[in-house]
Amino acid sequence: MEMITLESEIKNKMWDHWCPVENSMMGIGKGEECNWCGQDEEYESRNRRYRDRLTTTNKDSLHSNKRS
User: Which residue range(s) make up the domain with 17?
Assistant: First the structure.
């Protein structure tokens, strides 16, 4: 039970980031930039919403092409 608490505490102090320089997913401290590429959490959040929208659009497009 204590392990889950520790994991959630760490998660609350970090944000998830896909670093294009390192080509990997990593945790970055809240309020900090990625040391490799300089992206911050706000940029990552905007970028993630954009990627999610593209992914949804692409999936819809693929499904409509299969029906044709």
Answer: 2-67
